[in-house]
Amino acid sequence: MRPGCGTAEYGAPEVWLANAAAPLPDPGDVAAVDVYAAACVAFELLTGSVLFEAPNELAVVAKHLAHDGVPPGVMELARSSRTQELAELLCSALRSDPAKRCRADELREVLKRLSRRLERESWPLGGPPSA
Predict the structure, then answer these.
(1) Residue 92 maps to which CATH number?
(2) How far apart are CA 12 and CA 65, in angstroms?
(3) What is this structure's pTM?
């Protein structure tokens, strides 16, 4: 992880708050950065929308810094029984505190388990139920 370096749409809060003079985080913390980014990508792949939309990159980063695991788009997924478990997983992966995020193996296993159910859903998720 390089402090302050990343793509605005996928960067974990600690990427943007890191001090360049501080020592690099231990490998477990770096994995947490990857879990956060993977959750952002999963949200985008499944819904067709980025997690946060804003007029510029700085505003997108500000939105990553301001939430704690329940961005508005994930709240929308949580409202449907069809996508509630997915929303819970994304919330766990998007926590602001890296120590409170799910681990990469948990993210992978739950996504794998949910994949059969999700493949029957219409894309993008969040739309009306598929027939």
Answers:
(1) 1.10.510.10
(2) 8
(3) 0.86
Angle at 109 (CA atoms; ends 104, 83), nearest 5 degrees = 105
From CA 25, how far away is CA 14, in angstroms rounded? 10
pLDDT digits (tens, 9 = 90+) for 70-129: 899 999 999 999 999 999 999 999 999 999 999 999 999 999 999 999 999 998 997 544
- How far from 100 is each of 44, 45, 89, 124, 127, CA to CA, in Å? 22, 24, 12, 28, 30
**Among candidate residues 48, 54, 37, the one with its CA nearest the CA of residue 90:** 37
Residue 7 domain flag? no
**What is the DSSP secondary structure assignment for residue 130, as one 8-state letter?**
P
